[in-house]
Specification:
There is one protein chain. The protein is built from eleven helices and 19 strands. It has 362 residues and is an alpha/beta fold. The protein folds into two domains: 203 residues, Alanine racemase (TIM Barrel), CATH 3.20.20; 131 residues, Lyase, Ornithine Decarboxylase, Chain A, domain 1. The strands form three sheets. Strands 1, 10, 13, 14, 15, 16, 17, 18 and 19 form a nine-stranded mixed β-sheet that branches. Strands 8-7-6-5-4-3-2-9 form an eight-stranded parallel β-sheet. Strands 11-12 form a two-stranded antiparallel ribbon. The protein is elongated. The relative contact order is 0.14. The structure holds pyridoxal-5'-phosphate. Pyridoxal-5'-phosphate binds next to α9 and β9.
Length: 362
């Protein structure tokens, strides 16, 4: 009997989401696949998608992985190069690079090469993370327009609150950024901007979370946007127990049984990336029915109350339990799990640990 803790990655759903987003986007899509494709497996995800305009990653190592499997596709370094060594690789591997600060412009100007690069020049329209502001940006545009190592110059910025459709900050950011629009293509939209129809007709929309069939917008799930979850996380029942009224369950005796109850111990815990904060505070699905987590989440397992599950007597060791996603056990959106854990879906996807098995299915 295996513990069965598995992230099932559905390529059909991935491609379905890609098609939905292509129809939503005013033009080209940058598929953001940093952090191991948001925990889905970088190598597998980039191989599963054809006719991609551009992939984007955060680090040079991630970019090299994508290049290995996609020798011809445009690859964008979202934070740019950090030193001369990375800049050299970027030229050699034909990566596109963000430039967001003066130090990078200096490094780029000083670098001796006959090759050219596509540069995505980043404007800080209010996020206050990366990018040039105001006059600095105009100067940087001029400098790079006059640099013969620049092939194409694309202007980009990043939304701070596009997940809030009516937040005035979105309009303020667009108004500040759009002033710089000349003949260069622009890029500002992320998943939230696209799904919330914050339409600024940028030539490049950079989408991450939505590609994986997860909604970045609070109180909405992928289903609301005709997207399908790419990851389903599941585990198995590894033990069954009868608990008497008054007995406690697990570390810290954090749960006391009010009546006699039947519990199942399932093979997932915070050592797999499941949030500890969900102890006594979330459900999983078994036989298409909800079962509450009782007591604290341990490193490798947790207890669920199966007393009220129909045909409870049929539940046996080895039965499959749905943690999030969709399978024969039902539908449990990652967005709901994240909301219960008072976190965001991005975090749950990125914190899945290496001992979770991955299964790729069509
Ligand atoms: C610069 C940049 N653009 C686009 C994205 C994609 O965002 P999302 O996953 O919300 O679509 C990210 C993600 O963090 C980002 O850092």
């Amino acid at each position: 009997m295996s513990r069965g803790t598995t992230a099932v990655i559905d390529f059909d759903n991935l491609r379905h989401n890609f098609n939905v987003l292509k129809q939503l986007a005013p033009s080209k899509l940058v598929l953001v696949v940093k952090a191991d494709a948001y925990g889905h497996g970088l190598k597998q995800v980039v191989q599963a998608l054809d006719n991609v305009d551009c992939f984007a990653v955060a680090t040079i190592e991630e970019a090299l992985t994508v290049r290995k499997y996609r020798p011809k596709t445009k690859i964008l370094l979202l934070e740019g190069f950090l030193d001369k060594y990375e800049l050299k690789i970027a030229f050699e591997q034909h990566f596109d690079s963000v430039i967001h600060q003066q130090e990078q412009i200096q490094m780029f100007e000083d670098f001796q090469t006959n090759q050219v690069m596509n540069v995505w020049l980043k404007y800080d329209s209010g996020m206050n993370r990366l990018g040039f502001s105001g006059d600095e940006y105009s100067r940087a545009i001029k400098t790079l327009e006059n640099n013969n190592k620049v092939n194409e110059l694309i202007l980009m910025s990043h939304f701070a609150s596009a997940n809030q459709k009516h937040n005035k900050f979105n309009t303020q950011q667009v108004e500040k950024f759009i002033k710089f629009k000349t003949s260069h293509e622009i890029s500002i939209s992320n998943s939230s901007a696209l799904l919330n129809h914050i339409n600024i007709a940028d030539e490049w929309c950079r989408v991450g979370l939505a590609l994986f069939g997860v909604s970045p917008i609070e109180d909405k799930t992928a289903h609301d946007y005709k997207l399908k979850p790419v990851m389903t996380l599941k585990t198995n029942v590894i033990a069954l127990k009868q608990i008497k009224a008054g007995e406690t369950i697990g570390y810290g005796q954090a749960y006391t049984a009010k009546t006699n109850m039947q519990i199942a111990i399932i093979g997932i815990g915070y050592g797999d990336g499941y949030p500890w904060s969900l102890g006594n505070n979330a459900t999983v699905k078994l036989n298409n029915q909800q079962a509450r987590i009782v007591g604290r989440v341990s490193m490798d397992m947790m207890a669920i109350d199966i007393s009220d599950i129909e045909i409870v007597d049929n539940i046996t060791i080895g039965d499959s339990v749905l943690i999030w996603g969709i399978n024969a056990n039902g539908n449990l959106p990652l967005e709901t799990v994240a909301s219960n854990a008072k976190t965001i879906p991005y975090v749950l996807l990125c914190q899945i640990t290496s001992r979770v098995h991955y299964q790729y299915v069509e």
